[in-house]
Amino acid sequence: MSAETDREPCAAKRGPLPIGRAELDSESGPDGGHTGSSATQPEESLPPLTDLNGRKTAALEQELARLRRENLLRTRRVMDGPQGVRPVVNGRRLLSFCSNDYLGLAAHPAVVDALHDGVERYGVGSGSAHLVSGHSEAHQRLERDLADFTGRERALLFSTGYMANVGVISALCSRGEHLFADRLNHASLNDGAKLAGAKLRRYPHCDVDALERMLGANGATLIATDGVFSMDGDLAPLPELARVARESGAWLLADDAHGLGVIGNGGRGSLDVLGLDDREVPILVGTLGKAFGTFGAFVAGSSSLIETLIQRARSYIYTTALPPAVAHATSAALALSIRESWRRDHLRSLIGRFRRGAAALGLPLIESHTPIQPLLAGDSLLALEWSQFLESQGVLVTAIRPPTVPKGSARLRITLSAEHQRDDIDHLLSLLARLPRRQHASMRSKENA
Ligand SMILES: Cc1ncc(COP(=O)(O)O)c(C=O)c1O
Questions:
Q1: Is residue 334 located within the same domain as residue 373?
Q2: How many domains does the chain have?
Q3: Is 290 a catalytic residue?
Q4: Cα torsion at 262, 265, 269, 274 (round to 10°)?
């Protein structure tokens, strides 16, 4: 969303918290117990299975039963046909508000054509790791495109965003060093600290004062933050974090998985919105499976940073390169995303329409001006009940529950796409107005996220 969408990042120090957000200070070393696959790694984690008992299968079943009982069991839906706002789910066409395909490029004909063309040229598999014989001309070109797009010397492709974060953190932090991370960061940023054996210290969400207090005499090797927070949709206070990083001599890493392509001029993300450059935020992580509609991820930065990652990032070195045809298609998607600014403009107008409508209904939205518009339920069962009600009406919005979000902050993570029309938003609002407000204990839980 171009200049007119510029937003204040979340207040560096907050007043009262929105409903149900666990924002406790915490410290967790490499063995500190924040395990699991959660997106934001709240303090609540899955118990180690070895604690259950020696009978392994029984132990697994016992734990699964607990998750089911507590409405925390996650299940998958089977999608048929291309990604889009009207997918076929379990044989039924639904109106979807829960994909990260923010610009509607995942099944765009030009991107599909580019993938076909890439397969013709390069075949399917890359055959090996980048450092062996898997690095093709298509990867090289996409890295150049991404460096140009982000205004940095170089970019390095990773197979996923998870691997990019784990790779960059484990390459730059050593055992015992301190990594400071926003409490609502994506799980992969925390997992990188574990791989490195670094000490992970999580500061309350967007609370720069608390970060400074925690930094104290310790010093930090790296401060890591989401640019746009994946489950809340708000922006990190990057200018303040850049100041703290400069003063403490730490690297600053921004993972802008949900900002790039979506906000800022030409979709240049949170840093563009906040007027920051590579001196202030030297490490920029982006993903390609969200707004750009394809797959993969990258780190952009100085030549020396990228060369270091090539030498040291284990999740770069010890894995097969992503298929070159995907890189080829991503170059086309990136160009399309920059060129077709109407997608960001349209998205911005849909976000405004949704927020105005939700405010009129008195719905508990989080302060977010990105396509991520979470509706807090608090309780997991209530979030499931909301999701099931919407699905019964033909609308797909998955319930997001702990441990993906902190305990007590289960929600519908509503996401908007440039493929939505105004009528779709109005239809969603008309259903949200009818959401069950109370939890019915008798309701049979049918887990879905
Ligand atoms: C902020 C953030 N970083 C990284 C990732 C991981 O990216 P990928 O899905 O490419 O592994 C995600 C989501 O998946 C995310 O939300």
A1: no
A2: 2
A3: yes
A4: -130
